[in-house]
């Protein structure tokens, strides 16, 4: 019998891939799957509508055509329902897809047909769902600048990156775990469930997305030489060798943001905050992945 998948597609995400062409590719590659397609509206009612469709139909899985924002909205809607999620990367950065070894539509189909079913931890950060990577400081400032730019996509990120380099600075943070406090100074402090940003930069070679823990990674390069070494190491996958990079694993933590650094969760800029609390959501979700 054919499997039945709900295909939730965001019509505006990313750099304008033709949605009909993508649907044709899906139908051609996944012969033994019947699709019900549903377009997101961007309205608050989207998660409720997705839950209702899943409650009233026996779907074998949900495919999400969009970027990390769309994936997050769908995961929020369906967590606890036990349906696996397949990512069709139609976003700008596609951070989560990159982390799972999915770099295009054919990888996505391959993951759904022959990939692994990966159990992924979910985290609550001050009431916000975090699946991928959140951070304070340099990158969060970059995300804020990029979202202030006109237009979407990698060009906005590149423009923001140049603007952000002019203003690079250190921030102080206090990490609080069960009565223990540790002060850290960093240009960027990452809360990492996953391993890689959408650019492919491997920020967290230390962690495993399914191990019930997340990593805190503090990066504090001084001067242009160390910034260049860091940039190279992120792509050579050896940042653990740099002495200005520190990392710890936790399953719960509070972070005081002592100098008011910018903060982003899974690519979304958060309002200014002095303190965040990270706790585990006890409903992991399964994604189709290649790695
Ligand atoms: N029909 C729609 N019209 C307008 N906006 C929409 C619609 N559907 C969803 N959205 C908006 O799309 C955004 C999510 O986009 P998403 O994050 O998936 O893509 P992206 O930003 O291009 O990629 P990435 O997150 O990978 O950088 C949300 O802000 C959501 O409100």
From TrEMBL:
<dbReference type="InterPro" id="IPR016064">
    <property type="entry name" value="NAD/diacylglycerol_kinase_sf"/>
</dbReference>
<dbReference type="InterPro" id="IPR001206">
    <property type="entry name" value="Diacylglycerol_kinase_cat_dom"/>
</dbReference>
<dbReference type="Pfam" id="PF19279">
    <property type="entry name" value="YegS_C"/>
</dbReference>
<dbReference type="InterPro" id="IPR050187">
    <property type="entry name" value="Lipid_Phosphate_FormReg"/>
</dbReference>
<keyword id="KW-0547">Nucleotide-binding</keyword>
<dbReference type="GO" id="GO:0005524">
    <property type="term" value="F:ATP binding"/>
</dbReference>
<dbReference type="Pfam" id="PF00781">
    <property type="entry name" value="DAGK_cat"/>
</dbReference>
<dbReference type="GO" id="GO:0016301">
    <property type="term" value="F:kinase activity"/>
</dbReference>
<feature type="domain" description="DAGKc">
    <location>
        <begin position="1"/>
        <end position="129"/>
    </location>
</feature>
<dbReference type="InterPro" id="IPR017438">
    <property type="entry name" value="ATP-NAD_kinase_N"/>
</dbReference>
<dbReference type="InterPro" id="IPR045540">
    <property type="entry name" value="YegS/DAGK_C"/>
</dbReference>
<keyword id="KW-0067">ATP-binding</keyword>
<protein>
    <recommendedName>
        <fullName>DAGKc domain-containing protein</fullName>
    </recommendedName>
</protein>
<keyword id="KW-0418">Kinase</keyword>
<keyword id="KW-0808">Transferase</keyword>
């Amino acid at each position: 019998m054919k499997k039945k998948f709900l295909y939730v597609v965001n019509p505006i995400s990313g750099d304008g891939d033709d949605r009909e062409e993508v649907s044709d590719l899906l139908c051609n590659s996944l012969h033994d799957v019947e699709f019900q397609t549903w377009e997101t509206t961007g309205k608050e009612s989207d998660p409720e509508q997705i839950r209702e469709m899943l409650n009233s139909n026996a779907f074998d899985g949900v495919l999400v055509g969009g970027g990390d924002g769309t994936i997050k909205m769908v995961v929020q809607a369906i967590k606890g329902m036990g349906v696996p999620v397949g990512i069709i990367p139609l976003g700008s950065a596609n951070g989560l897809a990159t982390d799972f070894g999915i770099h295009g539509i054919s990888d996505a189909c391959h993951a759904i047909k022959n990939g692994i079913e990966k159990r992924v931890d979910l985290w609550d950060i001050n009431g916000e769902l975090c699946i991928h990577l959140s951070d304070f400081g340099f990158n969060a400032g970059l995300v804020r600048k990029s979202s202030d730019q006109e237009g979407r996509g990698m060009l906005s990120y590149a423009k923001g990156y140049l603007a952000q380099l002019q203003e690079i600075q250190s921030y102080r943070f206090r990490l609080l775990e069960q009565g223990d406090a540790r002060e850290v100074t960093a240009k960027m402090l990452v809360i990492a469930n996953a391993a890689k940003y959408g650019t492919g930069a491997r920020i967290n070679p230390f962690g495993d997305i399914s191990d019930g823990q997340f990593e805190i990674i503090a990066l504090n390069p001084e001067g242009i030489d160390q910034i260049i070494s860091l940039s190279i190491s992120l792509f050579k996958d050896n940042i653990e060798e740099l002495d200005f990079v520190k990392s710890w694993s936790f399953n719960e933590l509070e972070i005081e943001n002592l100098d008011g650094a910018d903060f982003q969760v899974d690519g979304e800029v958060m309002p200014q905050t002095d303190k965040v609390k990270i706790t585990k959501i006890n409903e992991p979700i399964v994604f189709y992945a290649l790695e």
